[in-house]
Design goal:
The complex is a heterodimer of chains A (572) and B (196). By secondary structure, chain A is of the alpha/beta class. Chain A contains 23 helices and 19 strands. Chain B is α+β, with helices and mostly antiparallel strands and 196 residues long. Chain B folds into 2 domains: 7-86, Alpha-Beta Plaits, CATH 3.30.70.260; 90-155, Alpha-Beta Plaits. The chains are: A alpha/beta (572), B alpha+beta (196).
Amino acid sequence: MPSYFGDQPGTVMSKHLSGSQIVCEALLNEGVSVVFGIPGGAILPLYAVLSQYPDLRHILSRHEQGAAHSADGYARSTGKVGVAFATSGPGATNLVTGLATAMMDSVPMVAITGQVGRAAIGTDAFQETDITGATLPVTKHNYLVMRAEDLGATIHEAFHIARTGRPGPVLIDIPKDVFTEMGEYDPDAPIDLPGYNVPGKADESQIDAAARLINEAERPVILAGHGVVLSRSFDELKELAEKAQIPVVTTLLGISSFPEDHVLSTGFPGMHGMAYASLAVDQADLIINFGSRFDDRIVGDAKRFSTGSKKIHVDIDPAEINKSIRVDAPVVGNLKDVFGQLIPKVKQTTHVEWLQHIEHLKAEHPSLKIPESDRLMGQHVVKALSDVTKGDAIITTGVGQHQMWAAQHYQFKNANSWLSSGGAGTMGYEVPSAIGAQVGNPDKLVWSICGDGGFQMTLMELATAVENHLPVKYAILNNNHLGMITQWQGFFYNGDYQAETYTANPDFVKLAEAYGIKGIRVRTQDELEAAINEANAHDGPVVVDFVIEKVDDLYPMIPAGQSVQELIEDPN
Amino acid sequence: MASGNGTHQRTISALVQDKPGVLARISGLFRRRGFNIASLAVGRSERPGFSRMTFVVEGPDEVVRHVAAQLDRLIDVVEVHDITESNIVWRELALIKVSAPASSRGEVLELTNVYRANVIDIGVESLTLEISGGRQKIDSLIELLKRFGLLEVIRTGRVATLRGTLVEGEDDGLFQADASKPTYILPVPTGETGSV
């Protein structure tokens, strides 16, 4: 039986192995312990050796999109590289949405796909798709490996690329007969990537320019993006914010990078963010952007975005600097290093008037007031989840109104406990990503907040949760509508409602039971607490069908491409 | 350099790994970011295993200025220089097959000499000329040959290189690639505020 740690400690030598064995040994050497995937013809030779590697846990997904999102959820919640397996053709193309989701949000992933045999490539063979061609725009890099002896080095390169710099997904396509070909594997072969530099510390002159702006500012705001989460710079962000007493707004993906019960926490701005956060950004004289790409959901109309402020943009990707917003002080480097360089140069100070003004904005624009209603609303559900779990759960979401209610009303206590598809906006992310998060965090409570639309895009992964004894709790905010679509058709298409209503939703409680899962239905506010407690106490997956108000528009709202001047805070 | 209607041309030189699919990665990037390639020249470089590409790209100024930064994100791209504002020499090459029966052959050969082009093939009714130089020179010869009857015109893209440094202290830093720094010139606004 092959040993992936070499014959003697410290003397790992080149070994003669099959391509499949090289893949498994290289994965283990990269510290991979779990893989999400589905077999198929072209990748069967890899599955044929899995029994030789019991330390490589394979979780059988029900759809390759689910495998990709599970690997993504695992990666986001643990900081490790998520791994997915799929076969050629449709198996590989089914990964594409998951890769695009990971690419847009800079999530480290490695996907391994089987390909038809080398002789059949380019002949339109059965289940042949040019997946390296198809995934060019949605991967950080990809490979077609034509020789078994190149497999080991390629896999180590792929992991290096996936996890360093600005992280992202990497796909490795392997022809069927390369899995069975014998080749040498040297785990210590050096990585040769002459065109790939990993930014570390920033140039001191950039740091000095940024520090000068921070020390001169009277109304500074920190915009904390996903980069803070990806670089695990939570403590550093807090240290800097506290030292100079700077209010912190986060992006949607920056949520849970800064404790929400902190006095400097100022919510998230943008299309459905808190009005006070959008106003703070608009009225600031300095925006310090840590690891956000000035996404259009925050910026809206770039010409009218926070026109009175100077801007510092810290990013690991130099291509993001000046991409959408022209900045005064660019800083290119690894965020963790940059914080280390910047904090000593920032003066300990406070901004009493500005902080008082922010408090005033928060009081004047509470934004998150839940409308008076006897009926059950999505906001009630999230608020109850937040209260009952004390902000201690890992939350995953889909995309739409439920996602924004989750972002607005769940008060996150722990760093990196918010998993949501921000850039790609992938409905259906909620179900499989929660599985990945639970696999990576077996002792934590994972709640997946779902829309009834998104849930039905990937619900087949409930079987994966059952099969692997993963006690994920699914909260369906069920209004039999594509809620955000309904809202947009009401706002922007003169109320011409089309294809927005789901008239044939299944009975989600019976559906859960069909999978052998506990199902609970909640129709009123009074039932919330007990139902959530019951779900938390159950030793296994649970689906809670929260039957919520049919039409309930989401506020605050800044229409797409507009600015804070067009902010609709409350229709009443 | 501006070329009217608000678009700009930039010349970019890139050293890339000579691997399958590199051109597809680069052309895919250009397509999805909305960069328009005015010309592209690719060939083996002085380093084994590496090719050099020279692009001329067109588009709105703020978009085109990001071409170098976006290119540098590609793993197979080793070095990128936006050499538009640098001290460069550049050439294009054209092969021109022109109708040249005995009656007009003399006149065509005269133009060939004036433009320092070379005759590389002679047929009964035609001549094939080779000319290299700047775009305007080639454009102007083609224009003059039109009245004889152009049978075929084949033009390469621009190839460009930085001039050798002649004066001490004039080094703009582009000649020594420092692995710790981006090798392209990223425009950073000075003293401007607000948004684009």
